[in-house]
Write a structure and sequence with these properties.
Distance between the termini: 29 Å
Number of strands: 11
Largest sheet: 11 strands, antiparallel
Order of helices and strands: EEEEEEEEHEEE
Helix content: under 10%
Shape: elongated
Number of helices: 1
Length: 129
């Protein structure tokens, strides 16, 4: 699974979050029904949420995923329909060398199997302003 977005640690467990309309608060997002035992409420389907104050969490961070493919680093995402990894680059020469297909004027993409890449997560501190 490729993770991307904002995350935090709350009560020893990692959650995705979005900023809340409430000052100095965030909304935790879970796909684990068991979190309802910890004050989460059912949002829809298998999504559960809980609003907490920023001072209740350990840290806030943003994750940007990359993939190492044949010695090069590319932006990466998970393609839901095929289950493959989607690699992107705006470097035309590198794209040609690696067999990427143009997807628009400046972007080239390629689908690869999971065992062809090493997923790298870039973590950066995130702050709620």
């Amino acid at each position: 699974m490729i993770r991307k977005g904002e995350f935090t640690i709350y009560n020893g467990k990692e959650y995705r979050f979005i900023e809340s309309d409430t000052v100095e608060a965030i909304e935790l997002i879970s796909n684990d029904k068991k979190d309802m035992d910890n004050g989460f409420t059912h949002y829809k389907d298998n999504i559960y949420t809980k609003i907490v104050q920023v001072n209740e969490v350990n840290e806030l961070f943003s994750i940007n995923p990359y993939a190492k493919y044949k010695g090069e680093i590319f932006s990466a995402s998970e393609e839901g329909k095929t289950g493959k990894v989607l690699l992107d680059t705006s470097n035309t020469e590198l794209a040609k060398k690696m067999g990427f297909e143009p997807t628009d004027k400046y972007m080239h993409s390629k689908y690869v199997e999971w065992d062809e890449v090493e997923i790298i997560e870039e973590r950066k501190p995130y702050s709620v302003d």
